[in-house]
Amino acid sequence: MKIKTIIKVDGLTKIYNGEVVAVDNISFEVYEGEIFGFLGPNGAGKTTTINMLNTLIKPTKGYAEIAGYKLGRDNDKIRKIIGLVPQELTADDELTGMENIMLQASLYGVNKKTAKERAEELLGMVELSDAAHRLVKTYSGGMRRRLELVMGLIHRPKILFLDEPTLGLDVQTRAKIWEYIKMLRDEFGVTIFMTTHYMEEADKLCDRIGIIDKGKIIALGTPTELKNILKGDIIVIEIDNVDNFNEEILTKEISNISEIRRIDGKISITTEKGENTLPRIINHLTKYGIKVLSVELLKPSLEQVFLYLTGRKIREEEPMDSIRMRAIMRRRRRV
Amino acid sequence: MTALLALTMRELKKWYRRRIAIIFTFITPLFWLALFGKSMNLYNLLQIPSNVPPEFIQYIQEAIDQIIISAFGTKDYFTFLATGMFSVFILFSSMFSGMSLIFDRRLGYLSRLLVSPIKRESIFLSRVISNIIRSLLQFTALFLIALALGLNIGPQFSITHLIALYITLALLALAFSNIFIILSLKIEEHDTAIAITNLLNLPLMFASNSIFPKNQMPDWLQTIAEINPLTHSNIIVRKLVIGSSLNIPLNSFLYLGIITILTTILGVLLSRKLLQYL
Lengths: 335, 278
Fold this sequence. Notes:
The complex is a heterodimer of chains A (about 325) and B (about 280). Chain A has twelve helices and 14 strands. Chain A is α/β, with parallel strands linked by helices and about 325 residues long. Chain A has two domains: about 5-225, P-loop containing nucleotide triphosphate hydrolases (Rossmann fold); about 230-300, YebC, transcriptional regulation domain (Alpha-Beta Plaits), CATH 3.30.70. In chain A, the strands form three sheets. Chain A has a six-stranded mixed sheet, sandwiched between helices. In chain A, helix 3 (about 95-105) packs across helix 4 (about 110-125) and helix 3 runs parallel beside helix 5. The longest helix of chain A is centred in the middle third of the chain and has 18 residues, at about 170-190. The radius of gyration of chain A is 23 Å and the shape is elongated. Chain B is mainly α. Chain B has one domain. Chain B has 14 helices and no strands. In chain B, helix 1 crosses helix 9, helix 6 (about 75-95) packs antiparallel against helix 9 and helix 9 (about 120-150) runs antiparallel to helix 14 (about 250-275). The interface between A and B is medium-sized, with 31 and 26 residues.
């Protein structure tokens, strides 16, 4: 199958208030029929990017093309072929599930009969048929998420934007949603652009992932490619006195170590087959009289990739920057 | 067009489902009509003292009648007030017509609308149309209540008058909902909207001929009342219901019509401009 680009982004930038850079000159491509994910911590610029591409936010700078239409110039055409499942649950909770779906269909000019047929099919798919005629305010969080998916799909979009589709859901519901998302791609050939800050979700669901941090894409590739950045397992060792430690002697005596880094007074060692190498390293350190305080063996995962690239864990508390940015955005909108 | 219809139906459905809220919307109007309208009986206040010689009573009574009728167009203050209140209630219900837009923005439903290919003005117009329908239904109920409370309808009142009454109030509802929805196009917090509403409602009511006749007012207030759409709507409504010759309502019709057209055009243009991006 020939790879076809459906979203092309070049130098896209969003600066709020002329001072807060939410998205910083990003460029990437999304291929037709793939599940493309943006992975990053809260406030990294994921939602801003998604909202620029779906015409909700005006970019400060940069160029983007969606299915051949130019963002900004052809917004009306873009709006016809995309669907959005936003981060917040935005179905009208004073209407029933079915009323919400039918209303959504009328926004896209889908006629009633077709909409009804599609709605029944989609509701069956996400197992919501029984609740279709109940008011949305009686739905659970998981049910509302699934309804949002149906609403995003009722007009058969070519591209579906999913902004944190499983935010705040329990593990089982999350796995279910992943199934539906995969099914959408497989059955309808929808291209999916999604954001998430769940590593496992990105790993299991996405064909390709862009890791985004502080408004910049810091790595892009398939989950396997990204994990290969690590070149193996990571062993993090805490010792009583880092000054006594000598990288050269360690690499000389233990063969399969590919990288040694010092992070925050800890030693991070990249190696293959960590479980075999770990005892040897401890023996080595003990032999040189270095006292080992703690040991951690980390298997390659996107979490490790993010840690490796940024020095931070993705689930860390929100950095001050993003809180400040939101405050400024809020103020800006008020004007 | 389908989208506009569907969005209007959404507004009406949600309104209809809030039955308790609907009941509450009648309480304030009822207070005005039953408490204020019935207790402020000006005609009874002007009782002729008992020590007046009987031969003058008839003349004094005629003089009082003439004064009251020339000021209010009717001897019955309740009828004067009720006919003024019909338009005031249109104002009260229209003031909140922008609220649904503000809540849609807050709750994220607006993103759903903005990201869809609908015409931007249908977001605006759906609220306007639903408000006109709501206001007229409320008016119908209040009209019946006022009749039950003793509204004095002129002998000439016919079905044509009734239709004209509905058209007048529809125009007023259109003008007011245009204005209040335009104000809500970019507002994020409902507190702001409520503050604006509270700031405007009483002054708009008092600076019109709703409660007292305009010609009793100081000049500056008369000028304000002249441009207040309420005044013109009241003039027409009273002419239709009471049938007195307070004024020729053609000018008022034109004025209402022009305000309606202008605010509609402004609303459509502004929603096209302001509802492009979130």
